[in-house]
Amino acid sequence: MGYSLPLFLGFLTASFGITPPGLINMTAAKVSLNEGRNRALIFALGATLVVLVQTFIGVIFARFIDENPYIVIMLREAGLIVFTILTIYFFFFAKKPKEAQEESKLHSKKSRFFLGMLLSALNFFPIPFYVFISVTLASYHYFVFELPFIYTFVVGSGLGAFFAFYCYIAFFKKMESRTAFILHNMNYIIGSVTGLISIITLVNVLLYYLN
Predict the structure, then answer these.
(1) What is the mean pLDDT of the chain?
(2) At residue 176, what are phi and psi to the nearest 5 degrees?
(3) What is the Cα–Cα distance from 152 to 11, expressed in whole angstroms?
(4) Can you spell out the DSSP letters for 87-136?
(5) Above 80 in pLDDT, residue 43?
(6) The model's pTM
(7) Residue 2: left if φ>0, alpha if ψ -120 to 50, beta else—which one?
(8) Which of 144, 174, 210, 168 is nearest to 21 (CA)?
(9) CA geometry: angle 112, 109, 163, nearest 5 deg
(10) 190 FRET partner, CA 20 to 30 A, in 8, 84, 93, 179?
(11) Which residues contact 143 (CB under 8 A, 6 or more apart)?
(12) How far apart are CA 49 and CA 77, in angstroms?
């Protein structure tokens, strides 16, 4: 396996994971509009640095899980329950997210780099996300848990994260109407994704027990 594949997969998964509107990328866009693109890029660099650390932690934890197959089965079963509950919640019970909350307009005089690090560190989702992604990729032989490939995957995820932030910084004005649509329908989008994951997980669990 060459290094280009884990680099590309890291880039692709990070870009996909960060593209939906959230506090960090929306804040990057706000900083760009209010204080200029350079300060927004500094903010994005701080956030990306934390994403690199979170990705590495997630992949290392995934390597431990991959070496213990019984843990993978337990996590699949637990994940099936969790994702099913999340799907039901987002489709039927979750409230629609509010657009452009005032809290995202941060006026801290501290370095935007450390502000980006802080907001990114408060988001714990990337760690379980990369555990799931790397275990799944490894199960299909697209990824191996060896340090050179892990480092390459982490670098790719950092590049993908920064690219996603940059798109918000550079093109937010053009994407604003689409962003509003996504925010308005975010619950259904997330519910669809978790529903799809639930179906895939259910199939994997059934195949394991049938074999």
Answers:
(1) 80
(2) -60, -45
(3) 10
(4) HHHHHHTPPPPPSS-GGG-----S-HHHHHHHHHHT--THHHHHHHHHHH
(5) yes
(6) 0.70
(7) beta
(8) 168
(9) 15
(10) 8
(11) 1, 5, 6, 9, 134, 137, 149, 153
(12) 33
Q: C-alpha 202: how far from its chain's center?
A: 22
Does the pLDDT at position 100 exceed 50? no
Lowest mean pLDDT among 47-61, 156-170, 197-211: 197-211
Structure tokens that stand for 173 in this block: 């004005």
Across 150-182, b (16+ Cβ under 10 Å) vs e yields bbbbbbbbbbbbbbbbbbbbeebeeeeeebeee
d(CA 126, CA 133): 10
Structure tokens of 184?
A: 């308005």
Measure Cα distances from 90 to 11, 25, 167, 187 in Å.
27, 22, 27, 5
Q: What are phi and psi of 101, to 5 degrees?
A: -65, 150
Residue with tokens 């939906």: 20
